[in-house]
Amino acid sequence: MQSKAEHVAEKQSAKELYAEYSAAVLPVVVRDENGDPGLGSAFHVGGGSFVTARHVVEGKTDCSVEIDSFRHHRPLQETAHFQKYDRFELVTLQPLFHPDSNIDVAVFSVPSLSDLPQIPLGGHLDDWINDDQFVLNEVLVLGFPPIPLAESNILVAARSQINAVVDLTVVKHVHFVVSTMARGGFSGGVVLSEWGVAMGMVTSSLLKSDVPEELGYMTVLSVEPILECLGEHGLLSPEDAELWDGLFDRKRS
Description:
6-stranded antiparallel barrel; Thrombin, subunit H; globular; alpha+beta
């Protein structure tokens, strides 16, 4: 089966990836049962379907994505010269979760945002991942960690590198360890390969005991459970549905 990476002729620079896909990444604004605010990230995978981390939205009483002027006008723009990023609106979302409660993946649909750029998911399923193929590859991390004193939620872009490929004791599926510092708000953000496909999604930093989050490794969950969750809820893009030929279609009882 051909992977999506094979559809891309050549590597793209971090600047090129940012220009093409930055508008596909949105802040997820939440409140918990005590009314305390929280922030995460989500990214568009086509047809108005978005992916985020389960822990960003699970158990929250209020979940929305924030659309600024740039993303609102993006479908109308022929170039990326529109630089006005003031907040436009909040759009309420209804998260849907991976059927395995231990898998940190949630998806949701906002059909009105289907014109945002589509980030293609890579074709590297868990059993196909060769560690040597990925270690020291360059990647681009996109997400919304809060910036102290900033007036609004700002997309943060970080050139990064895959430092290790790991299997964890606490959850199945392959994770990548990347060199970007782990910060709250990056959760649910996308990690793009040089070939213009998603390597996976930022989940949590790896920690033991009660140490500050920033001391842990940033981990990136690979694409297989993302495809499973999208397929479970009928949110695969037409391209992915065709590519995988029913492999991730929703389960029938």
